[in-house]
Specification:
By secondary structure, the chain is an alpha/beta fold. It is about 45% helix and about 15% strand. It contains 14 helices and eleven strands. The strands form two sheets. It has a seven-stranded parallel β-sheet with strand order 1-11-10-5-2-3-4. Strands 6-7-8-9 form a four-stranded antiparallel β-sheet.
């Protein structure tokens, strides 16, 4: 029934029920007794009031919490969830993204989860600026998704982040004790066949949550020599098409994987095992990250995004 088809008497009845329920806070049972009608009828009227326009529901501070923008991005890219932080001064962006990632992780982690992390500024910020909760679930394990590397800033190392996050969560630690890249393919083949490594990797491949940074083509170019121990000449053969990187897996602007010439030397979770992780949280922000984030989403490298408002707006165009 449409509102224009209702008599004045019926409309007044609906308005009164709406007032009692939504404004005065009375229960449906109390309203039924007061208006001498069945509880079922009250329930039907309450449900109809929104449809008829008698009641209009608004969410306080909707813009403040970026809910509409988050929902639009979820629908546009098919993401499980998006968290958008309000923009802050540039030198605090990484810190605020880390805090938001930590808050989101705390909201979803449950007993028995295995949380895998990568190196990087945002994952390190998540640990460094962790806001403690009252309690955490038991039997949680934290591991690394990639091997360790020489880091100019030791705070960014994968193993350091693993220990830090495990400490915050009161979780167990499982580390690979392996470099991110070995000297040769034959050495890697021997290494991954070692029983100790195979046992450690079994934990990695069973991760239920991944928290990863998203690298850009520019950032990968900067770190390639030190992080992956390759020379500039080797980079130039393939890096021109790289739009981004997640967990040592490189991809173009459409999200298609690009194999680097040193792929058979890398110690990290395989692409097949990585994409089996149910929750893959990408934490990244800033104008320079837009292309890499969009490509990471297209390639299904992440299914949850934590980013900032300006980046989210650019992604939503």
């Amino acid at each position: 029934m449409k509102s224009e088809q209702m008599s004045n008497e019926m409309m007044n009845e609906y308005r009164r029920v709406a007032y009692y329920y939504y404004k005065a806070g009375l229960t449906q049972e109390v309203i039924a007794k007061r208006m001498k009608m069945s509880r079922q009828r009250v329930n039907r009227i309450v449900s109809a009031c929104v449809e008829l326009g008698i009641v209009k529901i608004t969410i306080a501070d909707l813009d403040k919490w970026n809910l509409e923008l988050e929902t639009e991005l979820e629908q546009k890219y098919g993401l499980k969830e998006v968290r958008v932080i309000d923009n802050v001064v540039e030198d605090r962006l990484i810190q605020e993204l880390g805090i938001a990632a930590g808050n989101y992780l705390q909201s979803i982690v449950k007993e028995g989860d295995i949380v895998g992390v990568t190196r990087g500024r945002t994952t390190a910020a998540m640990v460094d600026h962790w806001i403690p909760a009252v309690s955490y679930p038991e039997n949680v394990t934290v591991t690394q998704l990639i091997g360790s590397a020489r880091e100019e800033d030791s705070r960014l190392g994968a193993d350091r982040i693993v220990y830090g996050l495990a400490d915050r969560l009161g979780a167990e630690v499982a580390v690979l004790h392996a470099p991110v890249i070995l000297h040769s393919a034959s050495l890697r083949e021997s290494f991954v066949g070692d029983p100790y490594y195979m046992s450690a990797y079994e934990v990695v491949k069973n991760c239920t949550i991944a928290v990863v940074g998203i690298g850009t083509a520019h950032s990968q170019w900067e770190h390639m020599v030190s992080l992956y121990d390759v020379d500039n000449a080797e980079q130039k053969k393939w890096a021109a098409d790289v739009a981004g990187e997640v967990c040592t897996h490189f991809f173009d602007k459409e999200g298609h994987e690009i194999d680097p010439p040193f792929k058979d030397r890398i110690i990290a979770i395989t692409m097949e095992d990585y994409k089996k992780i149910p929750v893959r949280i990408g934490v990244a922000g800033g104008k320079d990250k837009v292309g890499a984030i969009r490509a990471a989403v297209k390639g299904n490298y992440i299914n949850v995004l934590v980013t900032d408002f300006h980046t989210a707006k650019l992604l939503n165009k």
